[in-house]
Amino acid sequence: MFKTARSRFQTWITAGAGTIAALLVAGLMGAFGALPAHAPPQLPPDAAIDAGRWHLKPVRAYVSRAKVHGVPLKPGQKALVLEADMTNRTAQSDKAYFNVFTPDGLALPDGLPMVALARDQTLTPELHPGMTERMAYVWPLARDAIVPANLSFGITAEVFKPRDNLYGTPGWFNPTRLGTVTLPVADLPDSPEGGS
């Protein structure tokens, strides 16, 4: 009987200790999960950036009130334009670049930008492996939208996996905010084809 009581006591202590340990771990994980996330780093505006699938170098940002890089504007609109040199680091032609740059703090009525090849105004071109091209990201805005003199652009990067967990195929996954680059924003005078 003494042995049975002792055995029950040990079982109770072990189970209680396990429960307490589990509660402590869960509490710590919850506490760390509640901590504010670190802000993405501020990247230098004049440096080349490795964003996984893309190699980037932001060049300039400006506001245009006229058709720019072949992107027409509706009446009552202006455009925020970011030009960047981009190199496709993959082995095949690709145009999965729409979410690479995001202007911070602006209400974007159309969400995704129009993207054009700066040299010939081709819209949404495929970028070929290893060829650096200057791309123009064009976000239409309301004409009275306030664009700050210096604007931060978030940069999204992806990682390459030789096999993903779902299909077992290679690809670029896990888009995450790599950092932020801040550029001065010029205000172009009205012209028939600003920014070209």
Give an overview of the whole structure.
The chain has 1 helix and 9 strands, in the order αβββββββββ. By secondary structure, it is of the alpha+beta class. The protein is 17% helix and 38% strand. This is DUF4352 domain-containing protein. The chain crosses the membrane at residues 12-35. Keywords: Membrane, Transmembrane, Transmembrane helix.
Task: Draw up the topology in text.
Blueprint: H1 2-34, E1 42-43, E2 49-51, E3 54-64, E4 77-88, E5 101-103, E6 114-117, E7 132-142, E8 150-161, E9 171-187
Parallel strand pairs: 1-9, 3-9
Antiparallel strand pairs: 2-3, 3-4, 4-7, 5-8, 6-7, 8-9
Architecture (CATH level 2) name of the largest domain:
Sandwich
Q: What string, H for helix and E for strand, traces the elements in order?
A: HEEEEEEEEE
Instruction: Identify low-pLDDT runs.
Output: 192-196
Shape: elongated
Instruction: Write down the Rg.
Output: 26 Å
Q: Mean of the pLDDT scores?
A: 85
Any descriptors?
single chain, 196 residues, alpha+beta, Immunoglobulin-like, 2 domains, nine-stranded mixed sheet, 1 helix, 17% helix, 38% strand, disordered C terminus, transmembrane
Summarize the entry for a quick read.
The chain is built from one helix and nine strands.
